[in-house]
Amino acid sequence: MVKKREVIDKSGNKHSFSEGMAGVIATTSEICFINGAEGKLIYRGVPIEDLAEKSTFEETSYFLLYGELPTQKELHEFEKRLKKHRAIPATVLDVMKQMPDDANTMQTLRTVVSLMGLYEPKNDEHSVKETSGEVEKLIAVFPTIVAAIQRLREGKEPVAPDNSLSHAANLIYMVTGEKPDDYAARVLDVCLILHAEHGFNASTFTSRVVISTLTDVYSAVTAAIGSLRGPLHGGANEGVMHLLDEIGDLESVEKVIKNKLETKAKIMGFGHRVYKVLDPRAKILSQYSKRLAEITGKQKYYAMSKKIEEIMKREVGDRGIYPNVDFFSASVYHYLGFSLEIYTPIFAVSRISGWGAHIMEQLRENRLFRPTSVYLGDIDRKYMAISDR
Ligand code: ACO
């Protein structure tokens, strides 16, 4: 929502600006188009619905990074490169074993990615080859890091990647130690496609701002992970699960949601800076949540989610507050058997492709981001000696 604010500075000058930079054009991009009024999302010209139905995460990642759908050969080589870089370097894994196993998983992921940057010899080079190489390595290794974080939290040994499996299937395998069935692997694959890219959201913008200083890719991605972690951004999927657990059962949904709305509390997984109708990703995820509820025979979380959606539509739908991508991804991840602590890290496993595409695009025609603010502080204060304060 664009909220214009008018302020008068201490010199009497009037300024108008958009809070949270809503609607502000920061630069140009060819990666993603969102029509918030009509609920449309396209990656490089292709509607998200088509990619969710026909593509894979690997193919979508290639498309985001390089701007063209890969040929069979290009895709095969890309997948081979990703598989080559799936393993966590032994020295990094050793350090991971020393990290507190009760730390926030996104903070651990952020720290591990930052650590990996220390082992990247040419990380201050910004050639297309070096940058895309580093981005591909990060896409490849993210699932292994996230799975290892989860296994170590559970007091278990990390599971080494299995190169016979796809990116999504391998993530489930490394988390659970069991090879998933084709349907579970495909559902996660679709989740990864849907979360891979979303224009100038907070974490992507963060990655572009950071790389615009011509620092290294690892610094940009580390900062982006920190940004994604927040409950107003990627962290909302965990918030949704907390909400569902807080409500407890279907019968309590109406009372709890209405009470929260009356007290002006935010309902996690609802509302979006750009979408004022149903987020197209939520629409797709809602169908997967429904199907998984049927398959597992555990209707509770899907039924509660649908009820919340219905109440929110009735109560605040006219204000453009609808489910966003995080809302149904929470119940989908629950049905896939993931622990709550890695919901947001799984988002990062996907979004690293979008961040990578934006980092590469930013570097192609870089200009340092350096906006300004309206100064509202004092302008003529005298310095007072510390002894007089
Ligand atoms: N529940 C209840 N009310 C809401 C919600 C919500 N989820 N979202 C917005 N509103 C209300 C606000 O209270 C505010 O009301 P007011 O005008 O009476 O004060 C109004 O709608 C505008 O809200 P803002 O927060 O100013 O709008 P903004 O565009 O900044 O918000 C945001 C976008 C941050 C996503 C917001 O909708 C929110 O906090 N949602 C919950 C967290 C969430 O799900 N985040 C994930 C977003 S998707 C993603 O990042 C992957």
List the helices and strands and how they pair.
Elements: E1 4-8, E2 14-18, E3 32-35, E4 40-43, E5 46-47, H1 48-54, H2 57-66, H3 72-84, H4 90-98, H5 105-117, H6 128-153, H7 167-176, H8 182-195, H9 202-211, H10 217-228, H11 236-247, H12 253-262, H13 280-296, H14 300-316, H15 325-336, H16 343-364
Antiparallel strand pairs: 1-2, 3-4, 4-5
Helix pairs in contact: 1-8, 2-16, 3-6, 5-6, 5-10, 6-7, 6-16, 7-8, 8-15, 8-16, 9-10, 9-16, 10-16, 11-15, 12-14, 13-14, 13-15
Residues 1, 20, 201, 232-234, 236, 264, 266-273, 319, 321, 324-326 line the site of acetyl coenzyme *A.
Task: Report what the structure shows.
The chain contains 16 helices and five strands. Strand 3 and strand 4 form a beta hairpin. The N and C termini lie far apart (about 45 Å). The longest helix has 26 residues. It is globular, with a radius of gyration of 22 Å. The protein is about 55% helix and about 5% strand. The strands form two sheets. Strands 3-4-5 form a three-stranded antiparallel β-sheet. A two-stranded antiparallel ribbon has the order 1-2. It has two domains: about 210 residues, Citrate Synthase, domain 1; about 100 residues, Orthogonal Bundle (Cytochrome p450-Terp, domain 2). The structure holds acetyl coenzyme *A (ACO). Acetyl coenzyme *A binds next to helix 15. The site of acetyl coenzyme *A has 21 residues, from helix 15.
